Structure formats: structure tokens, C-alpha cells
Predict the 3D structure of the following.
Amino acid sequence: MADNSRPPVTGYPAPPPGAYSNGYPPPGPHSNASYPYAAPRPQYANYQYYTPDRRAAFLRYFLVAMIAFFVIIGTVLFIVWLVLRPRLPEFRVESVALANFSVSNASQHVSGDWLVRFQVANPNKKMRISYTDIESYIYYKSDYLSATRLPPFDQGTRNQTVVQASFAAVDSYVDGWAVSGINTERASGAVNFQVRLIALARFKAGWWRARRRLIRVLCSNLAVGLPANNGTGKLTGGVRDCRVGL
């Protein structure tokens, strides 16, 4: 039979006598912590705030502005090109007159006087062309014979201009293969020369001015009839078209 005079069991045995004699108080009735020291203070994250780099932002804005500027300029130039449609001039050799031509087999010297007439045409409907610093050269194949300078000139739209270039070679040295080639061609009745021309050209249309461009002209296969015992000859086969490039 149960003894009702004894206290109820709480689940934990009562501490023995003298358990709290070391000076610490017993735990409170609602405390479930057995650590006797005060709880540590909460730690907060140390956040750092950075201000944006003004220099980097300026560089970004500057780069964007420069890209936009070049895109706008390119668009404007493309529209101008579509409206004006610039075309390269056209060069033709109208005639070649050769006098006092002679070849020395022993010293490999060539002499002669050439007069070359060019037909220069401006095919543009809306653009004028001005030419400056014009230089012209005459060759036998790749061997240089003589050079000259031409005066500057202007061309209006759809205009044709005749330009003359005079060359004089006095004992101009050439390679041995050139002497042999000239003699062989001369025996057949005609010697082929070539004329090169370079010039600075500027295209103009109203207020618009393009920057100067270097134009290169090559006129090849200029067959000049030369009898074997005569140093005078002329271009054979009619007008020759020249190649024009930048």
C-alpha cells in the first residue's frame, strides 16, 4: 500500500547536502541553463560601405560619348557618299611622240624625247576635282628612263581636260636585258613603253571638301612605232586606257 506522506517524485534526485556551499546560488526554478556565467554579447557583422570610383565612371561616360561621336560622324559621311557617289577620274593616253631616240649597246644608255598627251575625264555629276603635286614617269618595262612634273589643274563636273607631259632622257642607264629587249622590239617595228602618274586629288561639292587622296595612274603597252634606222616614232593602235587607283 502506497505511502501518501512522502513528497512526489519530480524526476531528478535532490542534491546532497552542502552541494551549494561553494558560494553559487542554486539554479532558478525556470532556468534550463547549467552555465553559471553571463551570456556573451551578440556579435554584429562589420559592414563596410564603398563609394563609387568617380574616375572609372568618368572613363565609362567618356568612352560611350566617343563611340557615339564616331557612329554619328560615320553615318553622316555614309549619307554624303550616298548622295554624291564620288567616282575616280578617268585617264587615257591620246598620243605619244618620240624623237631623238637612240640606244647604246656598249654603255647600255638610252636617250630620247617623249611627248605624252593625256585625256583626263571627271565622270562625277556633283563633284569637282583639283589636282596638285603631279609627277609622271616613263619606263621600259620596269627600267626607269625619265621623269617630269606637271602643273596643277582643276576639273569641273563632267569635264574633260588634256594634259601634256614631256620627258627627256640623256644617256639614261638601263640593264642589259632592257637594251636587248628594246633592240628586239625595234626590229619588229614598235617599242612598248609605260607611263606612270601620281597626283594629289581633292574632291569638292559645294561646301563639302574631301581630304586629299593620292591617285596612282598606270598606262602600259604604249607601242611606239620606231623604224630600225630612225629615232622618231608615234603611238600606234589608237587611244590607250589607263588604270586608276588610290
Summary: The longest helix spans residues 54-84.
